[in-house]
Amino acid sequence: MTIQWFPGHMTRAKRQIQDKLKLIDVVFELIDARLPQSSRNPMIDEIVGPKPRLVLLNKADLADPEANAKWLGWFRSFGLEALAIDANSGSGVKEIPGRTKALLSDKIERQIAKGMKPRAPRVLIVGIPNVGKSTLINKLAGRSAAITGDRPGVTKGQQWIRAGGDLELLDTPGILWPKFEDLEVGFKLAATGAIKEQVLPIEEVACHTLRWLAAEYGGALSERYGLSDIPPSLPDVAAAAAVLEEIGRKRGCLAGGGHIDYEKAAGVLLRDLRSGKLGRITLESPIV
Ligand code: GDP
C-alpha cells in the first residue's frame, strides 16, 4: 500500500489527531533515535498544543548510545520529557508509566485533593510510519493487541487498551508525516527504511549516507568492509561513489564487464546499516 502525502491528506491526518487529543491526557511522540529530527513532524508542536507530551526515542538499540544521551539532553533543554527505548525488546519501556504519571502529577494531585480516585492516564501514541507505534502498543499492552506492520492510513474501530493497569492506550495511533519536501531529510528517512526504497534512487541514498558515515563512523566502515584510509570528509557525491565502488568490489557486487553494480553495493550498505551490522549509528546530531 502506498500513501501519497498531498496537503489534503496532511490536513486530514492533523484533524484526526486533534480529534483524538480531546479523549486523552498525554501524547507519546514516537521518533526514531537514529533520526531524532528528521523522523519528527515539523508541525508537531502546533498539532499537540499544550497537551502533556512524552518524547520516546525508539529503536535506541540501533542508535549510537552517546548520541542518544545528547539527544535526550537536547529535548529536555526545550522542556520536553524524553526517554530512549527499544520497543522490540522492551528495554526502557517499563519506565514509561512512571514518567507519564510524573508528567501528569499536578492533574493527579488535583483529582486526589477533590477526593477523586485518579484514573489511569489516557494515552495517544503518534509518529511517522514505521517508527514502531504498533510494536510499542503491543509491548505496553503485553499481548498482541495491535497489528504490527506498515499500514499507514488504515483505521478500525477505536478501542482502549489497558497497559498493565497503569495506562490506557488508544489502539489506533496517530500517523504523522515527515518533512518530505527536504531532500536531505528524505535521504535519511530512506537510509533507515522509514520511506520506501523506490521513492529515491538507492545509490544516491547510499552515497549521502556514506558521507555521514565516513565523517562520524569511519572506523566502523573500514572494519566491516575491510577498507583502508577512508577520508573523513567525502566532499561530494562522486567521492562517496568511489567508496561505494570499493564496498561493491569487496562484496563481489559485480555487473557485466568487470564493472561494479552500484545498486547492489548500495543494498549491501543499507541492509547492514538498518540491521545494526555496522554498529550502533545515529545519522544526525542536535543543532545547538
Ligand atoms: P508503525 O508503522 O509505527 O506501527 O511501526 P511498527 O510497529 O510496525 O514497526 C516497524 C518496524 O520497526 C518493525 O519491523 C518493528 O519490528 C521494528 N521496530 C519497532 N521498534 C523497534 C525497536 O525499538 N528496535 C528495533 N531494532 N526495531 C524496532
Automatic annotation (TrEMBL):
GTP binds at residues 58-61, 130-135, 174. InterPro entries: G_CP_dom (IPR030378), GTP-bd (IPR006073), GTP-bd_ortho_bundle_sf (IPR023179), GTP-bd_ribosome_bgen (IPR019991), GTPase_MTG1 (IPR016478), P-loop_NTPase (IPR027417). Gene3D superfamilies: 1.10.1580.10, P-loop containing nucleotide triphosphate hydrolases. It is found in: Cytoplasm. GO terms for molecular function: GTP binding; GTPase activity. Signal peptide: none annotated. GO terms for biological process: translation. Belongs to the TRAFAC class YlqF/YawG GTPase family. MTG1 subfamily. This is Ribosome biogenesis GTPase A. It comes from Cohnella zeiphila. The gene is ylqF.
